[in-house]
Model the fold of this input.
Amino acid sequence: MEKPLFNEGKKSRVFTVDKVKIENEKTHSLIMKESMQSEPGQFILVWIPGMGEKPFSVAASDPLMITIADVGKISGQIDRYQPGDRLWIRGPFGQGYKPYGENALLVGGGYGASPLLFLAETLLKKDINVHVFLGARSSDLLILVDEFEKLPVTLHITTNDGTRGIQGFVTVPLEETIQNLADIQNACVYACGPKKMLFGIDALCERYGIPRQLSWEAIMRCGMGLCGNCKIEMPDTWKEPADKPGSKKAWLVCKDGPTSFTK
Ligand SMILES: Cc1cc2nc3c(=O)[nH]c(=O)nc-3n(C[C@H](O)[C@H](O)[C@H](O)COP(=O)(O)OP(=O)(O)OC[C@H]3O[C@@H](n4cnc5c(N)ncnc54)[C@H](O)[C@@H]3O)c2cc1C
Done:
């Protein structure tokens, strides 16, 4: 397999779709022929000629995989891609998740689970115990369940309507697991998903004093910290991330993130 150089500038490179995997009615994964050296939690920018560029999390690096939910213009266009089609991709960008402690609690909401399989594999190689919490509105919106079931992780599933796993929010089994941890300071919560879910997880982690790495998503325009479009307005309770002192109220996903790390 061709292995491009790490961070070969931030120029666009052409990638060719090798396989398409349907995750659910709205979500599919594109597995490329080429790889891109990157860390879980980083993102790439996909450029569609005549339409623009959008960020997507790296779901796997070797070969490169991205998981896309069809919600609008560019994601709808990417949804039509088939093996042999070509994409222009720049990256990787952003801060990835940093392995921390002995117990990892990975939380994915909807297609927010996409960077977590790559993260779980990376943490397992470092002998870190991994618990995975996948949540979605209903069972047909869950992704990557089969892949996580193949890994030596403890898997917890929740759906809002109870069609699979526990009925309710993903924070319910997460809190139970946190309560049973012997050493909270030696554990870390890693999460990716909707903003509301991340705020809830942040508040829960703050209450128990557990370190967390949250991967934020926002509508991104310039990608360079200039336009302020991807600013996340943090609630008053927000605690400044340890890796970004001074960024308390204005978290720019493109420049400061996507991942914030608070101890
Ligand atoms: C760091 C980062 C990583 C991302 N990773 C993934 C990923 O792995 N998989 C994936 O499917 N998407 C991911 N996204 C979102 C993706 O970049 C696009 O925003 C999304 O695909 C919609 O683009 P669109 O052109 O299809 O939609 P548009 O036509 O621009 O918008 C369609 C609708 O979706 C809403 N919308 C658009 N973007 C967002 C957003 N980011 N958050 C909430 N609502 C939005 C719009 O308000 C509108 O209602 C990521 C975003 C960021 C910032």
About this structure: Residues 43, 54-57, 67-69, 71-76, 111, 114, 217-220, 253, 258 surround flavin-adenine dinucleotide (CB under 6 Å). The two ends are 39 Å apart (CA to CA).
